[in-house]
Design goal:
Helices cover about 60% and strands about 15% of the residues. By secondary structure, the protein is of the alpha+beta class. The strands form 2 sheets. It has a 5-stranded mixed sheet with strand order 2-4-5-7-6. The chain has a two-stranded antiparallel ribbon with strand order 1-3. The longest helix is centred in the middle third of the chain and has 55 residues.
């Protein structure tokens, strides 16, 4: 608390002291007290007033700084009223009680929100598992009754399946670390699963796939890594060029990490938009043309990579190529979270 602001807050007391001095002067003049005595009374009064004024400032300033220090060291700032000492002055006690009541009300609301959020998350997870059943059944029907129409239907069903997965992973974002199972996995197996999953839509879009140097093992969560890479492959398909479209997947081993790169020769991303593609809800120029774009896929990739202590980067030149690189550190250890 600045001293100048403290003086501003106490302006009424200062004006009161000035009025007091005027009254004392008028009274002593009326009583025909000599000037030296009048000056002595004013000086003594001023000394007591200014001393009390300054002491009060330092006491309050120290108290506020202590609270601010406790606040800085507190992870959950709203719990400050639980650790500060109850003040002695009645006026401050009244403020303290009001803050305690307000804090209790807020904590109750926070707990209610947490419960509501948990229930909603559980509902989303349950809904996803339930809706997966008819999706799987529909895909089997298309598989057993192949035709040009069922192939188109199968393509739409796979897109629905992707949106359903996004909903599930989005619901779990706030508890990423609780859902991890870090173990040794083979990148090639993960990538081949993704290619098999998107094989039909790639064929229908005349898109070629090239894989190079992917027989490498890393420690990470297989399910989450597959989701991340699948989102990137889906984007490569969605934003492909009209002819000779191609996606290339390759890895690079370093001493400290392994880099997985997914490169396509599609329509690319504008230079002015490349830094925003991982923002929540950002669709960009290409996304606005593609009406099914939600701007959630790459946002989820970014968040999941952060949770897994991986890094995701993008590089692109419009109408030439897009590269998305996932960097997986080698210092991971196997866990059964």
């Amino acid at each position: 608390m600045k001293f100048s602001k403290y003086i501003k807050d106490k302006i009424n007391f200062i004006l009161g002291f000035i009025i007091y001095c005027v009254i004392i002067t008028l009274y002593t003049n009326a009583m025909k007290t000599d000037k030296n005595t009048q000056v002595f009374i004013i000086i003594i009064s001023a000394i007591f007033f200014i001393s009390g004024f300054i002491i009060n400032y330092f006491v309050k300033n120290k108290y506020i700084k202590n609270i601010e220090k406790m606040m800085d060291n507190l992870q959950e700032k709203y719990l400050i009223t639980e650790i500060i000492k109850k003040p002695r002055r009645e006026e401050n006690k009244a403020y303290y009680r009001i803050l305690k009541r307000a804090n209790k009300s807020m904590l109750d609301n926070v707990n209610d929100t947490k419960i509501s959020k948990k229930e909603y998350k559980e509902y989303i997870e349950s809904w996803v598992h339930e809706v997966k059943i008819p999706i799987t059944s529909a895909k089997l029907l298309c598989e057993n009754n192949k035709s040009e129409i069922t192939n188109k239907i199968d393509e739409e069903i796979e897109e629905i399946n992707n949106f359903v997965e996004q909903a599930l992973f989005y619901a779990r974002l706030d508890q990423i670390s609780n859902d991890f199972m870090i173990r040794k996995i083979n990148i090639e197996e993960v990538i081949r699963n993704i290619i098999a999953r998107n094989k039909k839509i790639m064929i229908q879009n005349n898109m070629k796939v090239e894989i190079k140097n992917i027989d490498i093992s890393v420690y990470t969560d297989e399910k989450w890594l597959e989701f991340i890479l699948n989102q990137i492959v889906i984007n490569a398909i969605k934003y492909k060029r009209e002819k000779d479209s191609k996606v290339t997947i390759y890895t690079k081993e370093n001493k400290e990490n392994v880099e997985i790169t997914i490169e396509d020769n599609g329509i690319g991303i504008k230079k002015s938009e490349i830094d925003r593609i991982f923002d929540k809800g950002f669709t960009g120029t290409n996304g606005r043309k593609e009406k099914t774009s939600t701007g959630i896929g790459l946002y989820l990739c970014k968040k999941l990579c952060e949770g897994l202590e991986m890094k995701i980067d993008a590089e692109s030149i419009e109408n030439e190529y897009t590269k998305i690189k996932i960097t997986i550190p080698r210092n991971k250890k196997e866990t059964n979270t």
